[in-house]
Batch of 2 targets.
Target 1
Amino acid sequence: MSCDKNDYDKPAVELELLEKVYIDGKLYLDVFYDENHKINRMNYYKDNGEIKSQRQIQLDEQGRVKKVISDFSNYVATRTLTYKGERKVLDETSYEFVNGSPTTYGKRAWEYPKANVIKDLLYADDLITVSYASTFTFLESGNLEKKEREVFTHPDQNTYEQYQYDEGISYEFMIESNIPGYSQIPVAKNQLLNRKVFKPSGEFVAEVKFLNTYNEKGYLAAYGAQYTTGSEEYRFEYKTVIK
């Protein structure tokens, strides 16, 4: 067997991969990778330790998510994503039930009205009427600046959100950057410090504060999310691989 000299000249690259997420000490998410260190399966867990869903990830030739097959034991949800150029534009989901009930469908779409703005459209059961629209405005840093949410059937529930960020990378961004297209809502690059919610009039509604800690490599080790009604503690485990 022969080896190309260039194989020896390539420096080894150390990768830190998200492996497990815990909420309040209980396993919430288990992440699995293929031989190329791309996520190919994720297990989500209930509070009692049972698996809530097993999600198989299929990528297209460009490394973007093309299908997510989620097994919830009593039904299987299959998301099929469509791209236009570099942009994700459509998410069509089918729900197939173990008990033989008729298959149902869901639909989500994204529009890009101008630079750094994404409009997320969630459709009603008829797949024609838009029930919710969320407009996300991003900063050049890759972080979300503002989210404006419209609930067309209940406009009294309309809100907007504003954010402040830490310097560390969010775990949602680690997943999304590994398998682009997975997240159904736009993901900010950095970890949140706080999230404030307002009514369209500017009236304050709620705030979530995040207390973040990082490991010796600079990755998010844990954070506490403090809500008006209580709190949650997230903890993260990583594995190091050589590429």
Target 2
Amino acid sequence: MTDYVDGYCERVAPGLWGEPFNDLGNLAFLVAAVLVWRLANGDRTGRVLAGLIGLVFVASTVFHLLATRWAAVADSVAILGFMVVYAVVFAHGRWKWVAAPAFLALTAGAALLGGGLYFGTLISLGVFAAVAAAKRDGSWTHFAVAGAVFALSLSLRALDRDVCDYVPVGTHFLWHLLTGLVLYLVSRALLRP
């Protein structure tokens, strides 16, 4: 678990500042956490979401500073933790008991079929948009935009290693910037007046 991980164009050697763009890109999560905290205006659900986004900031920053397997696991668990809690909050009422197992099953199924760990999140954003639209809830546009941004974000994450020769810093830092925006957008959708 303490093995060195070299998974991104930007990292060329072990050490704390081996990925400065990826580390700085994590600030998007911190900004999102602060904005959601302020938007929550004392609302407990909003504060929990802001705290979870803050945890994503910490876990991702630690991973990109240390580049170890345990930190990579913490990074992935933090963002999936946010999504599990978010799915439960979105489902509310009589359906919330099934939201976490359904999201985890979707995530595992997508990963097993080669879609990666975050493809289930992209599908979930589409489901959230469809459910909100069916209820004639205007928040569906937030989810649709978040889904489009996340699709671009996932694409940039996947392209990182393929563009090293052309873009030495890679594209992973853009995944951070756009995913921070997505976490803000989906939180805003739940917290809007």
